[in-house]
């Protein structure tokens, strides 16, 4: 097994379900009693890079669940920036029932990718987001919407249409799921394929380094 020393941070506001998502990704189990993340928690997932090909290689992938404190103190954001130094993949997580959490993904992307710039605490919305600012970004991104189960069937099309532009803005694939139901990431499902592609890109970047 190849140890991958680099991380895949999950960035989002507190309460969107990052801890439940990480537990599902790494343990393939529902997290029974999720709690607030303080600082950063780390879990490990085994990933078969380019599975089924001559290039197949097994990696341990570290998933760093970075606490999403909404505090504006510069010290809080500076502390978070420490976790962005050795990364080769970013999962941006938002709560499908909370429009503000999807808007905040623009700020999180700027904070993580532009980590050499002192954080400002300014809330960035899609209207202020300049796609060209990170046109040369080589770090793969994945957008995951959580709490799909909490949206009434009659409202789902409306909500998913509203959030669909996120994937385009971030040049990333999008997964929407219910973290209390492992079937959303079942082997062979479209979500599982997207997830595997993302981890392949992140593993390739690490392998190239």
UniProtKB/TrEMBL annotation:
User: What are the GO MF terms of this UniProt record?
Assistant: GTP binding
Q: Which SMART domains does this entry report, sorted A to Z?
A: RAB
Q: Which UniProt keywords apply?
A: GTP-binding, Nucleotide-binding
Entry's InterPro entries?
P-loop_NTPase (IPR027417)
Query: Which CDD domains does the annotation name?
Result: RabL3
The superkingdom listed in its UniProt entry is: Eukaryota
Q: Which Pfam families match?
A: Roc
Q: What does this protein do?
A: Required for KRAS signaling regulation and modulation of cell proliferation. Regulator of KRAS prenylation, and probably prenylation of other small GTPases. Required for lymphocyte development and function. Not required for myeloid cell development.
Task: Identify its protein family.
Answer: Belongs to the small GTPase superfamily. Rab family.
Put simply, this protein is called Rab-like protein 3
Give the organism, scientific name. Answer: Cochlearius cochlearius
Lineage of producing organism: Eukaryota, Metazoa, Chordata, Craniata, Vertebrata
